[in-house]
Amino acid sequence: MWLYLAALLGLYFLRRWYRERQSVEKLTEKYVFITGSDSGFGNQLARQLDARGLRVLAACLTQKGAKELERVTSDRLKTTILDVTSTENVAAAAEWVKGCVGNKGLWGLVNNAGIGIPAAPNEWLTKDDFAKVINVNLLGLIDVTLHMLPLVRAARGRVVNIASVYGRLACIGGCYCPSKYGVEAFSDSLRRELHPFGVQVIIIEPGVFRTPILNNVEDNFWKAWSQAPSHIKECYGQQYLEDLCRSCQLLCKGASSDTYLVTDSIEHALTTCYPRTRYSAGWDAKLFYIPLSYMPTSLADSVLTYFMSKPDQAV
Ligand SMILES: NC(=O)c1ccc[n+]([C@@H]2O[C@H](COP(=O)([O-])OP(=O)(O)OC[C@H]3O[C@@H](n4cnc5c(N)ncnc54)[C@H](OP(=O)(O)O)[C@@H]3O)[C@@H](O)[C@H]2O)c1
Q1: Would the pTM count as exceeding 0.85?
Q2: Is residue 307 classed as helix, strand or coil in its secondary structure?
Q3: What pLDDT, in 10s, does the model give residues 259-279?
Q4: CB-defined site of ligand 1, < 6 Å
């Protein structure tokens, strides 16, 4: 019985391995549009796909980022400036992409742009703090997708959305986790809607990686604390803030610097004939966050709060 099960499992993985090795044809004629290509995963992915011969259309937030990316890549790669929170910007970028791809359509849309702060215990933040993050990470992603979909449909291409393990398990306060849960939900419904058109929607769930998004997280805790009303400060106490900063330092120290685990997953999603629906990237994602997200809530809560200090006025 166990032997039979093991053989079935072996066959399943063998078949998956074989299917996933098959690459899409004529990759050098395929266009891929990436948001947030100034730094981090987006920047690395743009360089990686360019080196593989794909036609990369890289959207950067700043002129400086675009110039620097052009300097280190081939003439095939083109850049544009895009702030995903501005619908005018997004519409202009969609027109630019349309002009670049012609009737070939857009093979890949990689929604990568994102921000991590303001993040802090929820009570320390304001509605504007929440809006700032959701505008980039979720509404920006939705706006870009809606504008680009006709082009992706024309190519029977792929939408790759960069979510996070924090879209499976809400480990921090603020809008980062809600925005990534939103990315998961939007991607799920979009996947089912676009399936009949031959368009695939893929979700990338990275663990914690050392990229510029982790910069200033600690400073932002101090800022949120300093702006919090005095009754909130009394409830939590300064020790809570200091412990929070210490946990953040530990998290950043433990963050993986192997960002290729993420960009290789995105590359695979764009180039294999049979992409997965979800890719979890990083050992922390595979061994901790994703398994914990399937556990009973009470267990996940106990694990996640184990290292947290108690607020001054905890009962
Ligand atoms: N690093 C991690 O641990 C991790 C884990 C899970 C998921 N992610 C996700 O991965 C994605 C990429 O993040 P990263 O880690 O590579 O960090 P990153 O280096 O900060 O990349 C984010 C990119 O988005 C750009 N950006 C910010 N606001 C924008 C806006 N309004 N419009 C257009 N572009 C904007 C940034 O431009 P500037 O550089 O000019 O600010 C930057 O190029 C994000 O969606 C993030 O949530 C990261």
Answers
A1: yes
A2: coil
A3: 999 999 999 999 999 999 999
A4: 35-36, 38-42, 61-62, 65, 82-85, 112-115, 136, 140, 162, 164, 206, 208-209, 211-213
